[in-house]
Amino acid sequence: MSPSSLPEAVALLGRYGAGAKLIAGGTDLMVLLKEKRIAPETIINLLGVPELQGIEKKDEVLRIGATVRLSALERSPLLSREWSILASAAHSIGSPQIRNLGTIGGNLCNASPAADLAPSLLVMDAEVTLVSKGGERKVPLSAFFTGPGRTVLKKDEILKEITIPNPSPGTVGAYLKLGRRRSMDLSVVSVGVLLKLSGAGQCERVRIALGSVSPTPMRAKKAEKVLQGRRPDAILVREASECASGECRPITDIRGSAEYRVEMVKALVERAVKQSAAGGM
After folding, report:
1. Which of 72, 138, 172, 174 is the most exposed place for a label (fewest CB within 10 A)?
2. What is the C-alpha separation between 70 and 116, in angstroms, rounded?
3. Which of 15-19, 97-101, 244-248 shows the highest mean pLDDT?
4. Number of neighbouring beta carbons within 10 Å of residue 237
5. Taking residues 96-124, what's their average pLDDT?
């Protein structure tokens, strides 16, 4: 089924309930279907819903529709100016073919601990808008993920859009990803950093987020406090990176051991903070 409006899509989802699956890019859903891990009664195609499309700067926020392609994120002139950390994260995902199909909504709703867009969106204090027959509700992205493959989305809700506050002057950031290969791979560790520096070079605002090292993408809040209000010199940055490595809860899997991930968190956080403090995005 291919609804032509958001109310129609919501009505269809309400009608078919647990027997329905939503599809946009299909990069995750098609794999599950081919492997016969799921067998939905109905598939609802969201690509024709105009309310889920578009990238625009509106009032004090950037609005991104849930079905915006990853390739559109990496190429957007608007993102390259003020939200380049998100463009960098989108560029790191898969191959050009995958980025031409995959969507920002799918990347988030799949709720992988390794979701590449999550760390950059977390440090930018992104918020998601969820829609159902009962209306809309807004949820901070930091409260959206509840576990591997799980979110706060209810069975009758659709992710409509992601909104990101405009960065204030002096904001800098970086996104770094470590995989087993230079491209076409899930992250072993990913790190997003956002700093707002004062004229004297002190950290007025600090955000550090980690991917692939806990059941959900996470903020490293203790490491943020280490830098808050202080100049990020080499000693302090090393202290913050060590603190971040102590906050994560990685597992051992085919991509890397838990011990390796802890060490790589330390290295990537240090590198991302230094890169941000040197000019970043």
Report:
1. 138
2. 11
3. 244-248
4. 22
5. 93
Give which of 240, 215, 237, 210 is closest to 225, Cα–Cα. Answer: 240
Starting at the edge strand found earlier in the chain, the sheet holding 55-58 runs 55-58, 61-65, 158-165, 127-132, 135-140
Torsion angle of C-alpha atoms 80, 83, 89, 92, degrees rounded to 10: 0
Residue 128 near residue 151, CB atoms below 8 Å: no
Residues 6+ apart with CB under 8 A from 181: none
pLDDT exceeds 80 at position 182: no
pLDDT tens for each residue of 192-203: 999 999 988 899
Tally of CB atoms within 10 A around 254: 6
- Please, what are the domains in the chain? 50-165 (3.30.465.10), 171-277 (3.30.390.50)
Q: 117 near 90, Cβ under 8 Å?
A: yes
For residue 128, the 8-state DSSP code is E
pTM score above 0.70: yes
Q: How far apart are CA 104 and CA 246, in angstroms?
A: 30
Distances (CA, A) of 8 to 5, 105, 153, 186: 5, 18, 18, 35
Specify the DSSP class assigned to residue 103. Answer: B
Helix (H) or strand (E) holding 71: helix 70-75
